[in-house]
Every structure is written in structure tokens, then in C-alpha cells.
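Listing S7. Sequence submitted for prediction.
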Amino acid sequence: MKFTDSPVITLEVANTTLSLEQDNASMHVGTSVWPCSLVLVKFADHWSPTNPTTPSPNPYSTLLDFRHKRAIELGTGCGVAGMGLYLLGLHNIILTDIAPVMPALKHNLKKNKPVLNKSLKTAQLYWANSAQMSALSPPFDVVVAADVVYIEESVRPLVETMVGMLKDDGVVLLGYQLRSPEADKLFWEVCNEVFEIQKIPHQHLHPQYCFEETDVYVFRKKNIVAL
């Protein structure tokens, strides 16, 4: 993949700056930076318990207290959400995607290593691949996903992976934007069967990263989970 002429996205998180390079000429959506990942990270930054400018009272102080939490990101792409949340304290996180996207992810991790001060863990993961899932030693306290719903055929494998990777008392942090009406309809049908769904009010998103078409959700497992 060639990144030399690709547009660069910068994102300020926790008083530092991430720099993300894209390969918009790629055939894979994961090599571009999509708005949902930016909105999700800036929501967490806005309400982070470690942020001295966080509004008070903070209704998300427990949700965004990442100390001692173990996390995985699904469909990481260029790495915005995973790296951003790492800077906000989610230090034990594995960033996953399919094989063709891994060069873009690793490129951006290397580019941002001086900011991150370490090499974040990565793994290849095709959704609902039981062997790959087991190799990552689930369950996790936090499952992160941003802009991952765009093909109807991938919806059930995605939700199956969310459920399989999540602790019974864990949370899914989801950045979401409607990409396909068919995929959107099926996604919410399946998710409503297995998750309690909380939509973050738009007025609680970061004021500079609050787009009408982009939302942040928190999912928690229902008592009975069966796909």
C-alpha cells in the first residue's frame, strides 16, 4: 500500500496528537478514516475521568474509567479508535481487522509510536471465526467498534463476534452511521435480541465532533444471549 499521497487526518486526544494516514485508493474500506471513529474517541475524551476539563457531574465516569479493563477493537481499520482510547487509559487493548487492512493499521501504529510510547497489540480477525476468536482469549471488558455496519452479509457475524468477545457485565462502545438501509435494519433487529442499547444524546458528544448522521451507542448484554 502507498500512503505518500494520501490525505492525513490529525486528532487531538488527551493533550497529544494522533496522525493517521489513509489509502483512499485501496479497495478496502478499512484503509480510510471514517467519521465514527473520530466521534467515538472525542466523546470519550470529552467525558474522560482523567480530563481536567470534563464537565461535572460526569454521567460517564464509570463507563470511561478504563483502569484494569481488557479490551478488543473489531474492524480497527487505520487505528483511530483503538489508539485514541489507549491514550485515554484503555491500555490493555488488541486491535483487530482482516488481513488486507493490517498493513494500513501497522503503518499508522508505527507512525504514532512516539506518541503511544509502545507498540499496541494487533491480531487478524475475521468475524465469527471461532478459532481466531478463541486465540484472543475472550471475554473482554470492553468491545470497541466504529463504522463497521455497511454490508448486510456481515451483520450476523459481527454481532456474533461482539457477543462472543464480551464479558457478561462488559460494554460495547460503538460509533455508528447508517451506510446501508438493509444492513442497518438487520443490525438493529439482531442487536435488540441480545443487547440492552443506550444511545448517547447528541448534546453529550464533543461539540466539535457532533455530526447529525453519526451516533455513539453503549451496548450491554441482556440476561439471555442467543443468536
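Caption to Listing S7: primary sequence and predicted C-alpha cells for the chain studied. The longest strand covers residues 166-177. The radius of gyration is 16 Å.
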